[in-house]
Write a structure and sequence with these properties.
alpha/beta, six-stranded parallel beta sheet, 27 helices, globular, DNA-binding
Length: 700
DNA sequence: TCAAAACTGATTTTT
DNA sequence: TCAGTTTTGA
């Protein structure tokens, strides 16, 4: 055990060895958060305070829960089955599978991903003859998910006019349809599990008595429903150990509520708040910059990172004339770093929005620098995989309309749109699934084709009964004609390969978990596979700042540090939005170990137009003594061209820097008029974009 | 039934 | 600008 605890700093040690009371651990970036979490689990078990059976550890991503399990396992022998470590959704799925009857679900309930949820909504609107321009499917999905994440069923939803009344009604219809099909969406997993525990005293007390220790990772990212779920489960006096960092809360837009941290302190009567402020990642200047920047936010729980490391290098700043030039600079610098011996995989290019990657990629391709982008298609999201899974879903639960519609005519088997619509209508009329309608005949002219499809699925189901999961997958691939289809397709080679991998995945699954189709499908829905760089190859890492959270690199480039882009225009108008942008910048800075670059461009191509902007206020918030400007006083180059070739005599130029007595520094975006009456549009960054008369401006 | 043409909207995203 | 979606037309 001394072994287990050795090397921990005093705060880490205090957190790891806390008694069985609710505690909030404020864990700064790079402060050894995961180590504290895993060591606490190992310590609790090795000291005999609790067995694996009594511990529940919750994370947000599969990646995090896998890592946690791995690292606990490295410290102490564990039985992965009795130790419940998983994502909120994964754990709720586990509980609902065990108690499906009490939860009011069908045994083989299927999990819809976001795309499937949207497809179901579109279908619903069509069936109900609702104008999808007045009620956009996306908005409706947000409305439904939003309500579920607040714990509200249709009955609890407020409606005050025709429009909101319709939304409420559609929410009801949506639920009815989900029930008919035996499917649940992601939010439903959480809400249904919450309600199960809330309404079933015996079950609630059972699990409250079982999980005496609950550990939560990334607590600042929890939404209201997840918080309520934790409160319910920990309500029996469990020691809830919440680890989080309010300064790294960057997911408010998807329902994360930082306020949960304060609520937790109050409602769980936390009197042990531990701050992990020693940073083991970044050098001094980088940490200083991060600390000063984040200090501009209000209402923080408060934290100041420090390090034993030296100050290190200053932060390098490069202001380019254009996004193109910014990319050129970065590529040159990356090559230089690489020549100096830094692996490409230890260098990251971070950006606020995905659109920025285009120019960077272009420059990288030209310079033949290997790179990887985070955020492509994941394994289980591939078309051929989705098709294969749809057949498996029909085997497990034929009432799943999404699955049926996806493959009833794929590969094509003479069941056209018309026929499908007839089936859907008759299903609608009788309140059943499309499968039921297909079984009942009445498909008009194409009755024969539909009948063959039904027989094929029935055949698969019967055969599946006696086979192992990988065998069932193979049957589905063969009998559906998917394999044949892709074999005939000269570009189907990669798809065939992926389908082969699906069979392997099924084989791995039954070894690690269970030989059960539904469980495998749940696994596929909850864990769509990762889309990060394939290990092995040394490649430069490109990603959004959001995607970089939790990662670290020797050298980091934060690009596009401009007003309007970072902070983004869409967020800068509210105090909360702006503070979240600042936290995002904080996350970006704290990714770097030794070297940090901040780059910006005076002009940038956006939505097909050249935009001129000023340096980000975040850059101005970093003290000058921490920065090293690589090209201060740089004159705008040819990228800034006059609007018209016939240059007016006032000498104004789009992209020109100007100054205003009240609004300060700005950049000319546009102008209008000639001679004496010239109006100029100026982008003043944080002060906004304004139209002014020329005489109000001074050139700079 | 498919491909071309027209249209639209563009911040961040895991489960 | 450009990618994704929907409409149109042969």
């Amino acid at each position: 055990m001394s072994n287990l605890l050795s090397g921990l700093n005093p705060e880490q040690l205090a957190a790891v060895t806390l008694p069985a009371v609710p505690a909030l651990i404020l864990a700064g970036a790079g402060s050894g958060k995961t180590r504290v979490l895993t060591t606490r689990i190992a310590w609790l078990m090795s000291t005999g305070q609790v067995s694996a059976h009594g511990i529940l550890a919750v994370t947000f991503t599969n990646k995090a829960s896998k890592e946690m399990l791995l690292r606990v396992g490295a410290q102490i022998p564990v039985n992965a089955r009795s130790l419940w470590i998983g994502t909120f959704h994964g754990l709720c799925n586990r509980l609902l599978r065990m108690h499906w009857r009490d939860a009011g679900l069908v045994e083989a309930f299927q999990i819809m991903d976001s795309a499937e949820q949207l497809a179901l909504i579109k279908r619903l609107l069509k069936a109900l003859n609702i104008d999808d321009e007045k009620y956009p499917p996306r908005d409706l999905a947000n409305y439904i998910n939003g309500n579920k994440e607040e714990g509200r069923r249709p009955a609890e939803v407020e409606a005050w006019d025709e429009y909101t009344g319709m939304l409420k009604q559609l929410y009801e219809e949506y639920e009815r349809q989900c029930r008919r099909e035996g499917v649940v969406d992601f939010a439903e997993l959480l809400l249904r599990c919450f309600e199960l525990l809330r309404d079933n005293a015996a079950l609630r007390e059972h699990y409250q008595a079982r999980f005496r220790y609950i550990l939560v990772d990334e607590f600042q990212d929890t939404n209201r429903l997840q918080y309520k779920w934790l409160k319910l489960l920990g309500g029996g006096g469990a020691a809830v150990f919440a680890v989080g960092d309010d300064d790294q809360s960057i997911y408010a837009f998807r329902g994360a509520n930082v306020g949960n941290m304060r609520d937790f302190e109050r409602e769980f009567k936390v009197d042990t708040l531990i701050r992990l402020e020693q940073n083991y990642r970044s050098q001094g200047n980088i940490l200083d910059a991060a600390n000063v920047l984040i200090a501009h936010n209000r209402g923080r729980l408060g934290k100041n990172l420090w390090t034993q490391e030296a100050a290190g290098e200053p932060i390098r700043v490069f202001e380019a004339a254009s996004d193109f030039e910014e990319a050129q600079f970065i590529v040159e610098e990356v090559r230089q770093l690489n020549r100096e011996g830094r692996a490409l995989s230890d260098i990251a290019l971070l950006y606020r929005s995905n659109a920025q990657s285009r120019v960077l990629e272009h420059a990288l391709v030209q310079a033949a620098v290997d790179y990887r982008i985070y955020g492509g298609l994941r394994f289980y999201e591939r078309q051929e995989i989705k098709h294969a899974l749809a057949y498996l879903r029909l085997i497990a639960n034929p009432d799943d309309d999404n699955a049926l519609l996806r493959v009833i005519n794929f590969p094509t088997r003479g069941i056209g749109n018309r026929t499908v619509e007839t089936l859907a209508e008759s299903a609608r009329a009788t309140g059943t699934s499309i499968w039921q309608a297909a079984c009942g005949g009445g498909a008009g002219r194409s009755a024969a084709s539909v009948g063959r499809f039904v027989l094929m699925i029935e055949g698969m189901r019967q055969e599946a009964a006696g086979l192992t999961l990988p065998e069932v997958v193979e049957i589905a691939l063969t009998q559906s004609g998917l394999l044949e289809l892709y074999r005939a397709d000269k570009e189907g080679e990669e798809r065939l390969e992926n389908l082969g991998q699906l069979v392997s995945a099924a084989a791995v699954f039954i070894k690690e978990y269970e030989d059960d189709i539904t469980q495998f499908l749940a696994h596929a829905s909850l864990e769509a596979g990762d889309h990060e760089a394939a290990p092995g190859t040394d490649a430069l890492q490109l990603m959004t700042v959001h995607a970089a959270k939790g990662l670290e690199f020797g050298a980091v480039f934060i690009t596009g540090l401009e007003e309007g882009l970072f902070p983004h225009d869409n967020s800068a108008s509210t105090a909360e939005g702006l503070e979240e942008e600042r936290r995002l910048a904080y996350v970006a800075i704290t990714r770097a170990r030794q070297r940090l670059y901040i780059t910006l461009a005076q002009s940038r191509m956006l939505h097909g137009q050249t935009r001129f902007s000023l340096a980000s206020r975040f850059l101005n918030e970093i003290p000058e003594n921490l920065l090293k400007w690589l090209n201060r006083g740089y004159a705008p180059s040819s990228a800034a061209k006059p609007l018209s070739s016939s240059r007016p005599d006032h000498g104004l130029r789009v992209g020109q820097n100007v100054e205003h007595a009240k609004f300060g520094k700005g950049v000319v975006v546009n102008y209008d008029g000639d001679g004496k009456n010239v109006n100029v549009q100026v982008n003043f960054g944080a002060q906004g974009v304004k139209w002014l008369i020329l005489s109000a401006l001074l050139p700079r």
